[in-house]
Write a structure and sequence with these properties.
alpha/beta; five-stranded mixed β-sheet; three-stranded antiparallel β-sheet
Length: 101
Amino acid sequence: MECIEKSFYEIKDIDSNGITFVDGDIIVFKDCIKQRYNSETCVAERDIFAKPPYFEFFTPDKPTKIIFDKTGMFSNSKNLKEFRKLQNMIINFGYSSYDLS
């Protein structure tokens, strides 16, 4: 399935409504519910073992994939730390994501 791909490192803000990117694009969590799964909370799929790790949000027109693509020294541990941070934020805001790993 074709999707919009964004780097995690392009995110400007994350709050209980969704994710805002530096270019002005927005993922609204409520708009992602019931787009793929019959769940009241599931907004994305995630795969921490993918290369690179990613979350794919069920945005209405096209899915939006957020990849953790930092490169360089210690980049792998930084990407995994940020992945878990995003996962915990989604949970704390009352939403969930489906684990593909």
